[in-house]
Amino acid sequence: MKRIISKLDIKGPNLVKGVNLEGLRVLGEPSFFAKKYYENLSDEIIYHDCVASLYGRNNFLDLIEKTSSDIFIPISVGGGLKSLKDIEKVLSAGADKVFINSAAIKRPKFLIEASKKFGSANICLSIEVVKNSNNEFICLSNYGREISNKKLSDWFYEAQQLGVGEIILTSVPCDGMGNGFDQEILELIYEKIKVPFIIHGGAGNEKQIYDVLKHDKVSGVAISSMLHYSVVREKNFKFESKSEGNTQFLTFSKDTINFKKTSILSIKKYLKKKGIKVRL
Questions:
Q1: What residues act catalytically?
Q2: Scanning 15, 18, 50, 239, which has its CA 20 to 30 A from the CA of 175?
């Protein structure tokens, strides 16, 4: 069964989204979008605290608690998790699992420690990747802000030996573009996939989603912009934000041109017709 996952990037109290992990723009109240996606048959919700180091954690924990009381699908949480205590707080707030990036790159043994304490199924690795000047795929940390010394192929293999139960991979150049997922990345790591694998970055229409889900080892896709744009285009959408911010997402400029208006239910119906097993 393939999964359609809604990925929500959080900055302070707001849902935000950018392009290539930059230029974050305010979209509204995160729990509103999460509930809507749940009702529309999302298989999972991902909350990514994309500026965790800049804000206090209490607001984020409150959001997890609120969401877990309103929806009944798995909630994955990541961003700024640096210790076993951080993970424990997030899981206690209602998250079903966590994903780790920066802390694992700095100290890979953290993945072993976390998997032993909380179980591999609850510990996922997040990989953000970009090509360098040598045409090699390398991993980034801190929500794409810092370049690491980890090559994608090596890190992808190593992390699975350290006990992670799942990997979500984001192509930074594809993020927010709506031009399709990075097939070159998928080819590079495909034979190394030994755990459930989620790809993120690039979804603009149903065919692009099918083009990656037709591969046996791809467990699911995480979608952000395509779903968010569809919600804010709805006639009854009412913008709600707890603070001021860049609300450019709410003006339909050229930024939306590559994204088909759709819903998770529509995506799943399309995939089912194409022979992909999904929850309906």
A1: 9, 128
A2: 239
